Amino acid sequence: MYLPSNISTNSPMASPGQPYLTQLICSTIVGDVNINQKRNYAKINDVDNAVDQIISSGSDSFSISIWERSNTIEHLILSALAQLLTDKHLDTIGLETIYQKISELSKQLSRQQYMKALDRLVTIDVLFDKNSRYGFTVLLFRNWVYKRNPLEKVRAEIN
Predict the structure, then answer these.
(1) Are 96 and 154 in a shared domain?
(2) Three-class DSSP category at 82
(3) Residues 78 and 70: beta-carbon distance below 8 Å
(4) What is the CATH number of the domain that holds 99?
(5) Residue in 17, 13, 16 with CA at minimum distance from that of residue 28
(6) Integer Cα distance of 29 and 54 in angstroms
(7) 68 near 31, Cβ under 8 Å?
(8) Per residue in 42-84, pLDDT tens?
(9) Domain count, the chain
């Protein structure tokens, strides 16, 4: 028995309109619960464990695809935003805070380049903009960026 509330409680992890991610999370939970946990029901922490397993195993082709199609400036924005939001336990953060963080790391980045990259990430639905506050459309991708492509790693790639 898999309790629907276990999945819907963390629905932002996959995000509405992301059936692939919902299926990936559910499939990972079912496999883990059936094989490793030896029980016929899922608990809420099974969702978190599934997400960690997906991120660490690299089986999330959705996130990998977005990252590979993004350029260096977008990588910097995504990593800075993931770090800021995660460290501060926020869902969104202001435009200036993001710009301040990335301008500390890359002095050669102009505001125009920054805004163009940020606008592209919003246009392709990787990020959302709500009253000049930005967040990740899919929480699983935010966690993936934070764990697999932390800001220090991206910074090292730039320099």
Answers:
(1) yes
(2) helix
(3) yes
(4) 1.10.10.10
(5) 13
(6) 10
(7) no
(8) 787 887 787 777 777 766 677 778 888 999 999 999 999 999 9
(9) 2
Tokens read off for 153: 């790693």
| End-to-end CA, the chain | 51
The pair of structure tokens assigned to 35 is 């094989």
DSSP 32: I
Domain residue limits at 14: 4-59
Predicted confidence (pLDDT) per residue in 91-104, tens digit: 999 999 999 999 88
Q: Contact at 8 Å (CB) between 63 and 140?
A: yes
> Judging by DSSP bridges, how do beta strands 133-136 and 93-94 pair with one another?
antiparallel
Helix axes 95-105, 151-158, angle to 10 degrees: 50
Whole-number Å distance between alpha carbons of 148 and 136: 16
